[in-house]
Amino acid sequence: MTAGRPAAEGIAPGHFPGPPVAAGHVAPCPRRVRARDDRGWALDTTRAFYAWEHPYYPQYAVPRADLADRLAATARPAPPDERLCDHVVVPLDAAFAWLEESEPVHGHPRSPYVRVDALRSERTVTVHLPGSGELLARSSAPVAVFETGLPPRWYLDPTTVAWPLLTPTDTVTRCPYKGVTTDWWSAEGLGDVAWSYGTPTVALAAIAGLVAFDDGRVEVTVAP
Known about the structure:
mainly beta; seven-stranded antiparallel beta sheet; five-stranded antiparallel beta sheet
């Protein structure tokens, strides 16, 4: 997502906090990090670090000795930091189930510097198809999701959506803060434009079953 989308922000271009750290930042991870597949545990460590290869979210840097060979194949060299001399960076390979303590991790590690809030709102959010201007959705009771470093996202009640204009797809995406999507929909000629979390994480329970739209593909306007 970019800073130049004032419609979806509903405020002004870029008027939200940016990423809290810069690429190259390293911080200790106090959580037990594990990964397993059908052969058993491929990683189990309490000595992980967070490593930011770009500003938006970290990856795990883990001791090479704690990593099974089948997971080590995807590892990358750790950043140049004296604390990481025996560590490698491991992205979250989808072939493995990843855990922090006993809770699943989806997509990438949760940043210790990110806050995600789902707030009920009274702003009117309107969604149109670009070009034709057909109305896709309009709601005056959205739930706004504010995630550190990113523009707000607006989740709408499904009763406000013009479903004949949308087609279900098999797409599945993962978010460490919201969970795993249960539904995606496309619009003709635009690809996937909308999604929903039927069973989001407890912290984002307010968006359960609501629908969000990709403001990079459709026109989203938010009244002040």
